[in-house]
Amino acid sequence: MLARSVLVTGSNRGLGLELVKQLSASKDPPEFIIATCRTPDKAEELKNISTEHRNVHITQLDVSNESSYGGLVSHVQELVGCQGLNLLINNAGYSPKSTRINMVKWQQMSDTLLINTIAPVMLTKALLPLLSTAASDSALDTLSVKRAAIINMSSILGSIGANEQGGLYPYRASKAALNAVTKSLSLDLRRHNILVTSIHPGWVQTDMGGKNAPLTPEVSISEMIKTLYALSEKHNGGFFQYDGEALQW
Ligand SMILES: NC(=O)c1ccc[n+]([C@@H]2O[C@H](COP(=O)([O-])OP(=O)(O)OC[C@H]3O[C@@H](n4cnc5c(N)ncnc54)[C@H](OP(=O)(O)O)[C@@H]3O)[C@@H](O)[C@H]2O)c1
Predict the structure, then answer these.
(1) Domain count for the chain
(2) What residue numbers bound the domain in which 179 lies?
(3) Whole-model pTM?
(4) Which residue's CA lies nearest to atom 1 of ligand 1?
(5) Is the Cβ–Cβ distance between 14 and 35 less than 8 Å?
(6) Distance from the alpha carbon of residue 95 to the mean position of ligand 1, in angstroms
(7) Exposed site from 21, 87, 149, 195, fewest CB < 10 Å?
């Protein structure tokens, strides 16, 4: 089992949906998959998965609505009980179009930073007591996703070292900042035995990645799940792509 309990944000489409699909269909699935999305009523594919797999709990969450975090935490606490939450995957993300320097708008910058950077920090803060409980209750004595972890869905476009094309101000800035958040969390939460890693899923055929992307969601996520199984102390505070290859900041 990858982890007893997993919470995925933005799980109604794209990579989040594929994560829930593959985790719920695995041979030894998590006991609790908390699949959050903005509009559960419209999440048809997710609803079908949850009808087939009773361990998939669809939960409403707009990550930019901080006032709803309290209710979410209580709901997750009720589901997972005294063993806490093992794995938080901050997957929900946003990428505005037309963001070259002469086009970029204030609102694009603030919306993107809110969803891609601020929300993962504040959601992590809200769920920290449940993650810490999982880490301290565990019989395991090393860092792992099975024990307790936060995975921030980042992007190679957030790598400053790999940026050779410019542009994409909101998205690049938000993911570079998310990577900085990953590093700080990995240091701050080490004493709680919580692993924190940034992962780039590859360029994937989703609404965000578009049809020309070389990877399907199936391949990206199946490789990523293998990588999640292998994460340990040496990966804490690092930046990796879906297949485990280390990336430059
Ligand atoms: N696809 C790629 O090539 C690629 C490459 C690098 C990194 N990534 C990262 O991977 C993650 C998933 O991307 P994707 O390709 O699956 O994108 P996608 O197909 O566009 O899906 C984005 C998901 O994020 C959700 N979301 C957006 N704003 C939200 C909010 N305020 N609250 C809750 N959910 C919200 C969307 O929900 P709604 O349906 O309600 O809008 C949707 O479920 C993102 O963090 C993205 O930056 C993707």
Answers:
(1) 1
(2) 5-241
(3) 0.98
(4) 209
(5) no
(6) 8
(7) 21
